[in-house]
């Protein structure tokens, strides 16, 4: 079973509530919220007040991806705004263990993300603290970029690290995920797929998500 997390970065912000209801009705498992600060990444998006507004509309878990540095001073605000999963970047904090513990102190699921240039070894000593690992398959900052092929090796490496743990940890991939590459990413070991432009650029959100599920199912039936 795979999960799909539409990234609202590519939604029509003037109709955000309606867009969230539409992707949920079309089969979204999580609502992926990209928070960017114009410092850690070269773009600005939204903060806790927007997450709090989304919380009133969304029925699915809010999967909040913080691309901000510093990050610790903002964990409380994003937790209180109604985030369910808070993911931070290994590159964005000097004390990753402390940051992940802070998320857990607020009763939230903790995710850790690594950029394309960061080796998986950067997170091996915090695996016992995380509920999700997010492998970025583009350099974060913008939707609509192309999937970086060497990310597949990192997904395989993280899957091996997860398999060595004694509890389930989700493995999410974000950036350039499309119906035509999702099966390969799933084969590498990912189970949660963030997709922004692939979904929101199409008129029929359900058709895109259905084709993602179908392509993964077909490749599992007929592995090459
Ligand atoms: O975190 C992100 C960018 O930093 C976005 O979630 C990601 O890029 C999704 O967009 P797309 O599916 O269009 O690549």
Automatic annotation (TrEMBL):
Biological process according to GO: pentose catabolic process; pentose-phosphate shunt
Substrates-to-products reaction catalysed: D-ribulose 5-phosphate = D-xylulose 5-phosphate
Binding positions (substrate): 7, 65, 141-144, 174-176, 196-197
Positions of the catalytic residues: 34 (proton acceptor), 174 (proton donor)
Pathway connected to this protein: Carbohydrate degradation
Record-linked Pfam families: Ribul_P_3_epim
One of the record's GO molecular function terms: D-ribulose-phosphate 3-epimerase activity
UniProt cross-references to NCBIfam families, sorted A to Z: PRK05581.1-4, rpe
Name of the protein in question: Ribulose-phosphate 3-epimerase
Organism: Magnetococcus marinus (strain ATCC BAA-1437 / JCM 17883 / MC-1)
């Amino acid at each position: 079973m795979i999960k799909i997390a539409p990234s609202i970065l590519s939604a029509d912000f003037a109709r955000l509530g309606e867009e969230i209801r539409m992707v949920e009705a079309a089969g979204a498992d999580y609502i992926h919220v990209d928070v960017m600060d114009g410092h850690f990444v070269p773009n600005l998006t939204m903060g806790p007040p927007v997450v709090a507004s989304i919380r009133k509309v969304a029925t699915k878990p809010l999967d909040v991806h913080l691309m901000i540095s510093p990050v610790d001073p903002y964990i409380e605000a994003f937790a209180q705004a109604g985030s369910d999963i808070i993911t931070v970047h290994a590159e964005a904090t000097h004390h990753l263990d402390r940051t992940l513990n802070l998320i857990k102190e607020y009763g939230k699921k903790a995710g850790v993300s690594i950029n394309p240039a960061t080796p998986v070894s950067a997170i091996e000593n915090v695996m016992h603290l995380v509920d999700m690992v997010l492998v970025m398959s583009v350099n974060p900052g913008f939707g609509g970029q192309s999937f970086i092929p060497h990310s597949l090796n990192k997904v395989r490496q993280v899957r091996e690290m997860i398999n060595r743990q004694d509890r389930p940890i989700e493995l999410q991939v974000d950036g350039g995920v499309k119906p035509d590459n999702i099966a390969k990413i799933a084969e590498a070991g990912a189970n949660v797929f963030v997709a922004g432009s692939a979904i929101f650029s199409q008129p029929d959100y359900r058709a895109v998500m259905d084709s993602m599920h179908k392509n993964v199912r077909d490749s599992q039936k007929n592995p090459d």
